[in-house]
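Re: that chain you flagged

S.,

Sorry for the slow reply, it's been a week of failed gels. I finally had a moment to sit down with the sequence you sent. For the record, here it is as I used it:
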Amino acid sequence: MDVDDVETVAVLGAGNMGHGIAEVAALAGFDVNLRDINEEFVQNGYDQIEWSLGKLAEKDQISESDADAALDRVTAVVPVEDAVADADLVIEAVPEKMDIKKDVYTEVEEHAPDRAVFASNTSSLSITELSEVTEREERFCGMHFFNPPVRMQLVEVISGAHTADGTMDLVEDVAERMDKTAVRVRKDSPGFIVNRVLVPLMNEAAWLVHEGEATVESVDSTTKYDMGLPMGSFELADQVGIDVGVHVLEYMHEVLGDAYEPCPLLTEKVDNENLGKKTGTGFYDYEDGPGAEIPSDEVDEDVKHALLAVMANEVAGLIGNDVADAGDIDQAVKLGAGFPDGPAKMADGIGLDALLSTLEERHEETGAERYEAVDYLRELVDEGRGFYGGDGDEAGDAVEFETIRIEREGRVGHIVLDRPHRMNTISGELLDELGVAIEELEADDDVRAVLVTGEGERAFSAGADVQSMAAGGGDPLQSVELSRKGQSTFGKFESSDLPVVAGIDGYCLGGGMEFATCADMRVASERSELGQPEHNLGLLPGWGGTQRLRHIVGEGRAKEIIFTADRYDAETMADYGFINELVANDELEEAAMDLAQDLAAGPPVAQRYTKRAMLAGRDDTDAGLEIEAQAFGQLMNTEDLMEGVMAFMSDEDPEFEGT
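Prediction finished late last night. Pasting the structure tokens below so you have them in one place:
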């Protein structure tokens, strides 16, 4: 069976994950049977799907007709036999208890057709053990979505000990049909990838506080503002539910041993039913207190090294046991946990030798098994390699850029901002890579125009990655250098001899809008939102926005956009003159590329001098006019001029060569 043979998907469990998975499947065009144990539960799940689809349509992320069609594809049922009788794929999303899941599969096996593939949405339990209660072990795998499934891009596809390769291929294809990124987990291992990295990290944070080495505030300050993670470790525990993390840890402890012993600081919270946001109190007070107020100036280098060392050890264990390679681990953790960089890359940045030393020192001091370094980490250090470094590391050799990618279509060099897990926000690394990318394209004689877009439909770029840039509490001198770095990098696009087009889809805010301002022309989808919200943060646009925007929309409009810090719809920005072409949401990619291709077919020499003259004339009209006059004379002696004249005379399209 291949993905085209999958017509009906049964989703068992209509809770938060179940109804979210059902919605994603319906949006992908599958017929969906949504099942739960009684009418109330399944109807509530169906109602949640209807509400969510309505919100997507309200925000113009899908059309009203697409929302209606997706809802029509969902059928709410209670009897198991009705849910699975015609199913090609059964996705189980019942509570995370092994006994409950086994009971479900025992019943489902009686009614599902022989062709059906079973997939569990478990976040950590053994796929092999679950499969063995069925008679289709080779057609059984894990399909772990992340919450909420409608928004989260990642799906971990997990192989059990008996899973056939064809089953893995099929389920990965289904995930891709659902517009998700499937990451293959090659071996059944507790926690798979994301939870195997994230949960021990949260546990280590708790141990550091429990043993008096750190405070909740210093740990969260370090993880959020130095390591650049989307939340502090304890803030995240409160958000997810402390009991959820403890449950995963207890399972890991049972299967993997004492290295995963839950910290008493966590288990005491569970025993006292202080589970985080959902109960009003966890590590922070959300009922009578301000919630998670994390200081930016309590960064602790020892905390950082301890956490990174434990994380690196988990990564090494996954790679050494052939669960996944470094590239897949990094991709999964970035998409599933919102890390700015993957844990393997973060560890390489510190140095595996230093992290191994941290583990050894802590193991000698405490004797705790969680600090026992795995063999593969020692092997890498002995060989002087990192997770991506050293000879023969194919994953490392294949990585040219981490935060962007370059594609070529005809004579257009297409730069894609490739951080969808962070709304394509702009980090220091992304700035570095943009600088390299534009220089690479300018050096390529086959490239005659540049197109810049953002990966995904949510954002061209939602601005600067403020969290990753706030390390150390926001040092003023470092901030000055960061401002200059962004101004310079974006300036390379503004001053490039190549025409530059920005294709804007979704959010284009702050630094993202400053980047788009440096393009020569901008095409935007109708759903796009633009703005310079820096004043809301007590900042100002620091990557050229105070200077460049006024040259496009005028000083009055530029002040309005910056001072109000409002978000503007694309139609308004087109009226202001910022957007050159406004297109339907599903036409953005094609329209932006068409414009870039048209510019790539233009006269390169004339385009180059036109950009130079206009840029020089912004603040000195006489200088711009002089460049214009000199260029006009030089162009009179080019072959492109003759080509243009001859094409005009013969009513044909010119073929300019730049000579």
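What I noticed first: DSSP finds 29 helices and 18 strands in the chain.

Talk soon,
D.
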